[in-house]
Amino acid sequence: MPGPDLRTDIVEVYVFRRRAVELPTSHPTNPTSQDPTALEFLQLRRTQPPLSGAWQPVLGHIEPGETASQAALRELAEETGYRPGAGLLNLWQLELVNTYFLASLNRVMLGPGFAAEVAPGIEPTFDAAHDAARWVLRDHADRAFFWPGQRAAIAHIVDDILPADSLAAPALRIPLPDA
Question: Is the entire prediction scored with pTM above 0.70?
């Protein structure tokens, strides 16, 4: 069939942590997860083609016999060291499938997304596919995550998963395997 190749074996994991926000006791807002300034999102700088030098969330391929959720947990552990019992607190599926085209490979990529909450104070240990990591404040995520699908994933996490009164979060939560 003519046209670009189609790949559906990609997962994207958006890693975030809640950081402490010190406000005066008289301040009217409560520094909770609803405060977007209290969130930081992790980006890793890729060292390998086709996107060398790009700052990205955790990305990886689903291996034979794996579900997308299992691949997300494995890739998260391989690329950052976060896993149940080692900094990973929660995991949710996102109700988004990121779709993008890589002209250099003539390939359309489809990747289900996941949100991973990690403990503050535990820094990632990245693998050989990455040479740096950085935490991006929610207020700067729209500039740091420059692909539309990535920005949509961040907005979905902030708007639909993190609010204390979210109806979606419990339904989207993925139980973590025992550490």
Answer: yes
